[in-house]
Amino acid sequence: MRRMNRKNVGAIGIGAMIVFIAMVLVAGIAASVLIQTSSKLETQAMATGEQTRREVATGLAVYDIEGHVNTDIDKLVIMVRPRAGSQPIDLSTAVLELSDTSSKRILTYDNTKFAAPATGGIFSTNVFGLSASKFGIIELKDADNSCDGTTPVINYGDKVLLAVNATSTFGSEIGERTDVWGRVVPEEGAPGIISFTTPAAYTDTVYDLQ
pLDDT tens digit string along 175-187? Predict the structure, then answer.
């Protein structure tokens, strides 16, 4: 039986050590890549989860809609409030969509039309001098004073009315038996839904429409 000399044994040992070190380095690099990838995925998943939570929880609810009758309905007020668990909502970035089935209008906030309810009633409030593409705000409840004309931000528990000059918006007053639908769309979160049909005859001055 042939014996290996010490030089050959040493060479084999060095070769095995080199292979072992290379394997350790490769394993270390692979582990580092896996850790970095895992960290990035975790961060992305957390960010996505937070965005999803905010999208689901945040939003507006339409609480009530009333209309004022001149000959037909010439003014609308839409009561909105944040949903339970909602983040604060800036109404200056919200969009109001309205349709009377024959046309669709897109309205944005007019920061010169912000007021508390007038003593003569909400439809006497000086916010209805609006153009076709604008809505005003009548403040009803704002415990933390977060809502003002410049930054109309509402939190959970706050309530405001969106004022619409229906005559300007649709080009004429809203007649009887008219289907009206739309949405109040915040910058982030779920929109508030508008859907009602006007009465068959106008015998009163103010109507609860939704």
Answer: 999 999 999 999 9
